[in-house]
Amino acid sequence: MTSFEVTHFDYFLRVCSRDFALYFSCPAWEWILIQAVHSERCIYHAAVAIAVLSRNNYHPFSGWPEPERTSTVGEYAIMQYNRAIRSLNARVGRFDIVSAELAVLASILFVYFEGFQGFQALMHVHLRGGFALLKDLKAASRNAEYLEIALYQIQDQVKEFGGRNSGNDKVNR
After folding, report:
1. Residue 155 sits in which domain range?
2. Could you tell me if residue 165 is inside a domain?
3. Mean pLDDT computed over 75-86
4. Is residue 110 part of a domain?
5. Alpha carbon of residue 156 to chain centroid
6. Which long-range contacts (CB under 8 A, 24 or more apart) does 39-42 make?
7. Residues ≥6 apart with Cβ < 8 Å to 75
8. pLDDT value for 36
9. Mean pLDDT across 59-79
10. How distant is the alpha carbon of residue 150 from its chain centre?
């Protein structure tokens, strides 16, 4: 990890993971994210992308330090987001409970990243994908309830902030 990544990884652990727990009104979310960010490369990259955007939102960089030769905060965050997607794709080759849980968790983080960036169409893609995977997880996963509650809360927030694309994004409960 670069020093820039270390700083933002730490920011995610200390600030963002707690924000998720508060948002979902569930202290377990902090633990879920901390465990996942340490064990799954895709979650790590998604966390760094979210942390960079979140931190910059509250404390904008006065001069971009050009980590990894990117020219803006957004470009760096997208680079981390793309790494997260590539890592997830490499990690989940076949369907099993652990891979499906990981994919749903990643989709939750991806939706947050996409919200920061204003990528509304991608938010809906990842929400639908998360719900589709969740259908297969409900009977077999001990974490399905946490994931389901989180997806519904995110879906409601996306709708509240005008994130509905063509009205075809409603997922039946």
Report:
1. 3-160
2. no
3. 95
4. yes
5. 16
6. 40/87, 40/91, 40/102, 41/87, 41/91, 42/84, 42/85, 42/87, 42/88, 42/91, 42/102, 42/106
7. none
8. 95
9. 87
10. 11
Domain annotation covers residue 105:
yes
Q: Which two tokens stand for residue 25?
A: 């009104």
> What pLDDT does 17 receive?
93
Write down the pLDDT at residue 79: 95
pLDDT at 49 (0 to 100): 96
Q: Write down the residue that tokens 């200390």 correspond to.
A: 14
Structure-token match 């409960």, residue found = 173
Q: Give me the DSSP letters along 22-71.
A: HHTT-THHHHHHHHHHHH-HHHHHHHHHHHHHHHHHHS--SS---GGG-S
The closest alpha carbon to 112, from 86, 168, 150, 162, belongs to: 150
**Amino acid identity for residue 108 in this structure:** I
Within 8 A by CB and 6+ apart from 23, the residues are 29, 153
State pLDDT tens for residues 123-144. Answer: 999 999 999 999 888 888 888 8
**pLDDT surpasses 90 at 15:** yes
Task: Check residue 93 and report its DSSP letter.
Answer: S
Average pLDDT on 146-158 reads 92
